Amino acid sequence: MRQKYLLFIIVCFLTINTNGQNSHTGIKLGYNSSCVIGNNISGVSNMPGLNIGGFFSYKFSWFYLQPELLISTKGFKTQSVGELYLGNIFIYTEMPILFKKHFLKQKKITPYLIAGPSFMFKVLAINLVSELEGIKIFDTGINLGLGCDIYKTSIELRLNQSIINFDKIDKNKYHQTLSLGVTFHLLK
């Protein structure tokens, strides 16, 4: 069932009609630093990760609508014994639907703000010992960020705060991810 939803979204994403200067597509590559937050969580530290994928951006009168399709790794390290940490890695197919607003528009350099929801489907949840159980298949969050378009590339800093508890056992665990990404505009 999950594969059918993913296939449907990919087909919709790839068949959007591009319309000259009002739209563009591109690829995205970035670094994630993620952690888990909630009440009574101790001995937890950030876990590095990556994200890679593509996007389509369509210009409306004063903003852009930018859906993305990303493969993203998140996670956290937990202190197991003494100074030993166990890494928990989550791999998601992530679909942010972002609103992007440019300001201080210059010829080749244009800063922007970005915000919107993100829908995440778990592909895999593992640590060095085994596959993690009790992790929900679906997660969603809110993205807030800023970036700068530099000719046909962009640099972006984004915070993703999960708003749905991702753990079926502990009812108060949420992902928090800080991403630094580079975007390459293919058709602009």
Structure explained in plain terms:
This protein has about 190 residues and is mainly beta. It has a domain at about 45-105 and about 120-188. The protein is about 5% helix and about 65% strand. It has one helix spanning about 1-15; strands at about 25-35, 45-60, 65-80, 85-100, 110-125, 140-150, 155-160, 175-185. It has an 8-stranded antiparallel barrel with strand order 1-2-3-4-5-6-7-8. Strand 2 and strand 3 form a beta hairpin. The chain is elongated.
Based on Cα principal axes, name the global outline: elongated
**How far apart are the first and last residues' alpha carbons, in Å?**
35 Å
According to DSSP, the number of beta strands is 8
Please give the largest β-sheet. Answer: 8 strands, antiparallel, barrel
Give the spatial strand order of the biggest sheet: 1-2-3-4-5-6-7-8
Class by alpha and beta content: mainly beta
**Total helix count?**
1
Weakly predicted, low-confidence segments: 14-19
Radius of gyration: 18 Å
Question: What is the helix fraction of residues, given as a range?
Answer: under 10%
User: How big a fraction of the residues is strand?
Assistant: over 45%
Order of helices and strands: HEEEEEEEE
